[in-house]
Amino acid sequence: MKKIYLFLVAVLGIFMASAQSIDLLYHDEVIEGNELAITLDMDQPMRIDYIHIQNKANTELNFRVEMDKSGVSEGNDVMMCFNGTCMTETVSTPVLIDPEETYEGFDLQYLYANGVTSTVVVKFIDHNTNEVLKTLNV
Predict the structure, then answer these.
(1) What are phi and psi of 84, to 5 degrees?
(2) Which uninterrupted H or E stretch holds 16?
(3) Is the Cβ–Cβ distance between 106 and 124 less than 8 Å?
(4) CA gyration radius for the chain?
């Protein structure tokens, strides 16, 4: 019986060690939940918001970002950028983060021509397992 418990503890430890965990930070604060409300200033037709991705695991993380832009109103656009390079595609190439490090090169760039509310859904995905690590409604 003791051996069975020891085996279960060992298996659980291996599972926990391999699970990826991330925090998303906005203005150096952890984003709680999956909502991030951004208020746009209509006097400035472009806005950039940095979202930092913190790898909480003790293993490296190979992640990608997928963005659903179906909630963006006509005439507006949202792009995701990595290290200053913005893309119109909705799926990024993979990015590698070392264990317990924070990736600070990701941002969302909003281009809006009107005051109509737009929303995007941003998914942070483990590129190796396709596990959705976090979903953020912006």
Answers:
(1) 90, -5
(2) helix 2-18
(3) no
(4) 18
